[in-house]
């Protein structure tokens, strides 16, 4: 199970949208740089606040400081102008967990115009376990010695 791992990073198109705002109001907020208003209506953030048992609550997400990454007209900086006129959203996300062993250093988007999404990235600092061969050998020898001593005690008690 994924939650059995000590360090986990989930990233991709999680498909969460922005609720309760009109498309025009969303685009206006993006142009004005009013991300706070949009984030207040982000489905993922709302789910995390309202539902303590929500599985993604086990993960962290760094604060979002960039415009919504979806839905663009390919090759442009225009949000969807097709007949569907899809609303902007932060579909593309990075969530992580790590029992105090992971820290996200940045979270940003890139202005790559080959898709209807803008890619996001995160840089992480991880504290990983390492094995020092000499200390491992010493621990092994100590365990072997204790095992031999226990075997002797058991043998003496059974005679």
How would you describe this structure to a colleague?
The chain is of the alpha+beta class and 159 residues long. The chain has two domains: 2-128, Deoxyribonuclease I, Chain A, CATH 3.60.10; 131-159. The protein contains four helices and four strands. The protein has helices at residues 23-32, 35-39, 43-50, 133-158, and strands spanning 8-13, 92-97, 102-109, 120-126. It has a two-stranded antiparallel ribbon. It has a two-stranded antiparallel ribbon with strand order 3-4. The longest helix has 26 residues, at 133-158. The radius of gyration is 25 Å and the shape is elongated. The model has no long low-confidence stretch (mean pLDDT 93).
Oligomer: single chain
Question: Helix segment count?
Answer: 4
| Radius of gyration (Å) | 25 Å
CATH architecture of the largest domain: 4-Layer Sandwich
Note the gap between the termini: 48 Å
Name of the CATH homologous superfamily of the largest domain: Endonuclease/exonuclease/phosphatase
By secondary-structure content and strand pairing, the structural class works out as alpha+beta
User: What helical percentage do the residues reach?
Assistant: 25-40%
> What is the β-strand count?
4
Query: What is the global morphology?
Result: elongated
Enumerate the spans where pLDDT stays under 50 for 5 or more consecutive residues. Answer: none
**Approximate strand percentage:** 15-25%
* Cross-sheet strand order for the largest sheet: 1-2
Taking the sheet with the most strands, its summary is: 2 strands, antiparallel
């Amino acid at each position: 199970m994924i939650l059995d791992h000590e360090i986990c990073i989930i990233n991709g198109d999680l498909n969460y949208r922005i609720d309760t705002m009109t498309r025009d109001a969303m685009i206006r907020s993006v142009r004005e740089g009013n991300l706070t208003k949009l984030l207040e209506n982000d489905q993922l953030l709302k789910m995390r606040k309202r539902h303590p048992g929500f599985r993604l609550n086990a993960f962290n997400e760094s604060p979002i400081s960039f415009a919504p990454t979806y839905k663009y007209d390919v090759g442009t900086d225009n949000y969807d102008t097709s007949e569907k006129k899809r609303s902007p959203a932060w579909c593309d996300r990075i969530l992580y967990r790590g029992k105090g062993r992971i820290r996200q250093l940045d979270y940003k988007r890139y202005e790559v115009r080959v898709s209807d999404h803008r890619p996001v990235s995160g840089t992480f600092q991880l504290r990983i376990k390492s094995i020092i061969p000499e200390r491992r050998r010493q621990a092994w020898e100590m365990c072997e010695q204790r095992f031999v001593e226990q075997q002797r005690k058991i043998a003496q008690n059974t005679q």
